[in-house]
Structures are given as structure tokens and as C-alpha cells.
Amino acid sequence: MAISIKSKVAAVIGILFALLLAVSIVAIVFINLLSSKTEKLLTANYNTIRYCSEMSYAIDGINTNPAAAEGKFELNLKAQEKNITEPGELEATQQLRYYFEQVKNQNSDTSLLHKINRKIYDIYLLNQQALERKNHNALKTAANARLWLTILTTILVLISFSLAVNIPGYIANPVRMLTDGIKEIAQKNYEKRIYLDNKDEFGEMASAFNLMAKKLYEYEHSNISKVLFEKKRVETIINQMEDAVIGLDAENKVLFINHKAEELFNLKETDITGKYAPDIALYNDLLRTVLQKNTQLKPLKIIVDGKECYFSIDYRTVKNEGESIGEVLTLSDITALKELDISKTNLLATMSHQLKTALSAIKAGIDKINDENTGGTNEEQKMLINNIDESADRISHIINELTNITK
């Protein structure tokens, strides 16, 4: 069963909280225990020792001031009787009470005073030993507290250190891998994949990223194949054209040039593709002439294989959504049309010359007929001669027009 990142982080925080709580509980328990033992150490046994000291001082002064000594002794004895804490202390205190009552009745018997001092010493010794024992126990408790707190603190520190080292990497590494993957996708490297064995959100993220990259790869290659097919088809069409074609982008860099243009401009497509056209024109006179876009330029005469050829130039701007994205230059071979035009001109010139020659002979004949020296003509002949002369004038006018057309 996959565990989410939220659950893992919550579990880590829970472990740290539990360890911190355990350290706190152990510290509180041992502090309370030490406080309790220290309090008992400073109250019950200490007070008994103080009572014993006061009673010992009172017994020592019983001979000099019996009333004051007995009052002081009685006061501390009563306090001692209320402060019984150690085994054997009750019996010793009862015997002390018994001996003290005898002292009050028998008036300071030396043997009784000795017994009282003995019992005071016994009670003192019991509490002194109890103090040492409790002090030892307190030290032992403090040592145990230090041990347990050290163990728990060490565990807490080790776990915290391990989590501090591993958790950032656990979270940051997948994020870094995703970031690198996104950068690769941005560079159109759709073969990029992220491999994570995590069964959590990071694993789902990696799977989603890989699926996205796969779909982009398929889409890209599907489009590329279509684009490459269309590009190949367009190149084939352009290369099969009889016209020389050069394509430029918006920055006047050469995009393509067909085979006819390669032959005509004496250039290689592989050498000039992507280069700035005016830079190429510095070393190519024909390209420089074409790029000048002289609209008044007559059909361009180019020597091809030792033969004069004539080409017309066409400039077509390519636009996309109203914005110019390039230009296509086309040089069409019009040599055949030019030759037909020359033949037409020659034909007209020949016809005009022949017609003029024949017309000149007709005009000369009319002038001879109209000459009186050659003989007279009747009215009908004169009318016919005038008609011939007018027709000759019309033919002369037509010849002049043909001459003008030829020019």
C-alpha cells in the first residue's frame, strides 16, 4: 500500500514529537524523584539530627540548670517523637523517653544520663546512616536520570540528524529531477524520462511527467514526419521548376535555392543556406544585380554555356497574418520569347524594306505615266492612276506604322 508524502512527513514529525515527549517525561519523572528524595533528605533525617544535637546539649547542661535543660530536652524529644522515619528509631525514641522520665524523677543519675546519651547517639547514627543511604540513592537516581536522558537524547539527536540529512534530499531530489526534466522538455528533448521508485506523490508525478513526455514525443514526431514530407514535396516541386528560384527569410538570409538557380548563379545550396544574401552578393555579380530590385531593368541578358539567354525577374513577398516573413526571387527564362521577338522584328523590317522597294517602283511608274512627255491619258486612265496613287500612299502609311512597331 502506497504511503503519501503527507503521511510520511506526519509520521516523521510524530516520531520526533514522541521522542521529545519521552525525553520530557523521563526528565520530569527523575526531577520529581530527585526533588522528593532531596526533600526527605533535608527534612526528616536532618531534623532528627538537629533534635539529637539539641537534646545532647540539654543533657550536658542538666546539672547546672536542670529546669532549663529539662524543658529544652522535652521540647526536642516531643519533636523527635513526631519525626520517626527510620527502622529502629521508634524503639530507640521510646527508650529515650523512658530514661528521660526516670531522670526527671531521680534527679540526674549519672548512669541514666549515660544511657540517654547512648540512645541519642543511636538515633543520631540511624539518621546519619539514613542520610548517607538516601544520598547514595539520590546520586544513583541522578546517574540513572543522566543515563536515560543521555540515551534518549542520543536517539533523538541521531534520528533528528538522520531525518535532517535524508528528508531534504528525499523531497529536494525528485523536485530537482522534475525541474531538470521540465528544462529538457523546454529544449524539445521529448526523450527525457524521470525514473523514481517512490510509491507516493513523487512517483505519481514522475509517471505523469513520463506520460506527458511520451505524448509530446509522439506528437512531435508525427508532426515532424508530416512537415518533412511536405518539405520534401515542396523541394521536389521547386527543383523541377524550369525557373531559377531563391527563397529569403525576413532577415535576407538564404532559405533555399533550386537546381536551376544553382546552375545560373554558380552557387551551391549547401554553401549558402542560412547565410546573409547581401554578403554572398559581394562575390556574385548576378546575385548583386538581382538583389538591387531595379524595376526599370529590361529582361536580364545572361551568358549561359556560351549562349545569350534572357530572363525576367519576379519578386514575391511572403506574408503571414499581414507580416512579411520572407521573399521569393524567380528568374524566368524568356530566351525563346526573346528570339521570337527578334524574328518578328526582323520579319517586319524585311517586309517593310521589300514593300518600300515595290512601292517606290509603283510611285516611279505613276510619275512617268503622269508625265506629259510620255504621252497623254484620258480621263478614265487619270482616275485609275489617282486610285493607284492613293492606294500606294495608304500602303506607305502602313509601312511607316510597321516600321514604328519594329522600333
If you had to describe this structure to a student in words, what would you say it looks like?
With 407 residues, the protein is of the alpha+beta class. It folds into 3 domains: 5-168, no CATH class; 243-333, PAS domain (Beta-Lactamase, 2-Layer Sandwich); 340-406. The protein contains 11 helices and 5 strands; from the N terminus they run αααααββααααβββαα. The protein has helices at residues 5-60, 66-81, 89-106, 110-186, 201-239, 259-265, 269-272, 277-281, 285-291, 335-370, 379-406, and strands at 244-249, 254-257, 300-304, 307-320, 323-333. The longest helix is centred in the middle third of the chain and has 77 residues, at 110-186. The radius of gyration is 65 Å and the shape is rod-shaped. The model has no long low-confidence stretch (mean pLDDT 77).
Overall 3D shape: rod-shaped
Number of domains: 3
Q: From the alpha carbons, calculate the radius of gyration and give it in angstroms.
A: 65 Å
Give helix % range: over 70%
Largest sheet composition: 5 strands, antiparallel
Total beta-strand segments: 5
| Beta-strand percent range | 5-15%
Strand order across the biggest sheet? 2-1-5-4-3
Helix-and-strand structural type? alpha+beta
Mean pLDDT: 77
Order of helices and strands: HHHHHEEHHHHEEEHH
Low-pLDDT residue intervals, each spanning 5 or more residues: none
The termini sit apart by: 98 Å
